[in-house]
Design brief:
The protein is of the alpha+beta class. It is 27% helix and 31% strand. It has 2 domains: 4-241, P-loop containing nucleotide triphosphate hydrolases (Rossmann fold, 3-Layer(aba) Sandwich), CATH 3.40.50.300; 248-359, Nucleic acid-binding proteins (OB fold (Dihydrolipoamide Acetyltransferase, E2P)), CATH 2.40.50.140. Strand 16 and strand 17 (328-334) form a beta hairpin. Helix 3 crosses helix 4. The longest helix has 18 residues, at 174-191. The protein is globular. It starts with a strand and ends in a 9-residue tail after the last strand. This is ABC transporter-like protein.
């Protein structure tokens, strides 16, 4: 499938003063597993529906290779059924009066594929999805995870060039979500399809995507590989949206700072090496914090904060440690059983390269 390009795409609904999608530029390469990630109302589902042709943009253009699907300026709109894309909704949208085989064959029947070929193709994808033995059952006789597989099989049967998935796993319990993530990963590898996947679940995006596009308020905040997005967030929104427990933010204000804030501010300024940007805050991932006894000599070229242990929370295989520094709570995580106890005085150490510095506008400031 050629590259999908969204250029200056906007969508504003009648009666609304704000755009649901605002001047969005996005490229989905052939073979990408692109996850559009963001909170509710950020414009990700609207964007997906515009790619599918279920919504028409109020500005910009959408093209696949050299073929223009939508263009407000040129007055072009290609109907959804002519876009050669498959769509799976949050609700499975299975026909309740049809068997699993009939549901799987439905798209092929609409395309007037012959009975023999239709049956052969349905058998193939049902077996791939592990639902072949349910061919004569009805959707109400299957579990949620099995119904999800039927919805995917129906889409795969028509062999779409692009698969558009709108939060397809949100109705499943945690175990089934894990199984279906593995299934989607396998589908992407086996069918080599281009997938655009909408989710608000950061772990779905991190575990599935080859690239992630983070949206907020209808605008693209950052696009990159999962590692890029997590390790080098472009701004405080991206930094705060990804991570559990969330990133620790230490803000610098004009008020008389507490000792640990003053130390963090000095550390940020030295790391900028004379850059014109003014540090407004720093971010520290919980897993970046090392807990040491206060008697241990401070490590050179590292941020150190004196604190006391407030609580230790086991999470099964790992521990979340809540520490207090000058009345502010900071969270650390570890996979090693902690030796400290609530009430202990400790030193928190963070390697220099693991400190994220943001300017007063919340944008990332690159470190030397």
């Amino acid at each position: 499938m050629p590259t999908i390009r969204l250029q200056g795409i906007s969508k504003r609904y009648p009666g609304s003063t704000a755009s649901a999608v605002d001047s969005l530029d996005l490229t989905v390469n052939d073979g990408d597993f692109m996850c559009m990630l963001g909170p509710s109302g950020c414009g990700k589902t609207t964007t997906l529906r515009m790619i599918a042709g279920l919504e028409q943009p109020t500005g910009g253009s959408i093209s696949v290779g050299d073929r223009v699907l939508d263009s407000v300026e040129q007055g072009v709109f290609v109907a959804p059924e002519r876009r050669e894309m498959g769509l799976v909704f949050q609700s499975y949208a299975l026909w309740p009066h049809m068997t699993i085989r009939q549901n799987t064959e439905y798209g092929l029947r609409l395309r007037k594929v012959g009975r023999a070929e239709r049956s052969s193709r349905a058998d193939e994808v049902m077996n791939v999805m592990g639902i072949g033995r349910f061919a004569d059952r009805y959707p109400s006789q299957l579990s949620g995870g099995q119904q999800q597989r039927v919805a995917l099989a129906r889409m795969l049967a028509v062999n779409p060039g692009v698969m558009l998935l709108d939060e397809p796993l949100s109705n499943l319990d945690s175990r089934l979500r894990l199984e279906m993530r593995t299934e989607l990963k396998r589908i992407h590898q086996d069918f080599r399809s281009t997938i655009v996947f909408v989710t608000h679940d950061q772990w779905e995006a991190m575990t599935l995507a080859t690239r992630i596009a983070v949206l907020a308020d209808g605008r693209l905040q950052q696009i990159g590989t999962p590692t890029d997005i997590y390790d080098r967030p472009r701004n405080r929104f991206v930094a705060g949206f990804l991570g559990n427990p969330p990133i620790n933010i230490i803000e610098f204000t004009d008020d008389e700072p507490a000792p640990h804030i003053a130390a963090a501010h000095r550390f940020a300024e030295t790391r900028l090496h004379g850059a014109t940007a003014v540090p407004g805050s720093i971010g520290i991932r919980p897993e970046s914090i090392r807990i040491e006894p206060p008697s241990q000599a401070p490590a050179p070229d590292a941020l150190t904060i004196d604190a006391s242990i407030f609580a230790i929370l086991p999470t099964g295989g790992s521990w979340t440690i809540e520490a207090v520094a000058d009345g502010r709570h900071l969270f650390a995580t570890t996979s090693v059983p902690p030796t400290c106890r609530p009430g202990d005085d400790v030193r928190l150490r963070v390697a220099a390269h693991e400190v994220h510095v943001f300017d007063t506008e919340g944008e990332r400031v690159g470190l030397s």
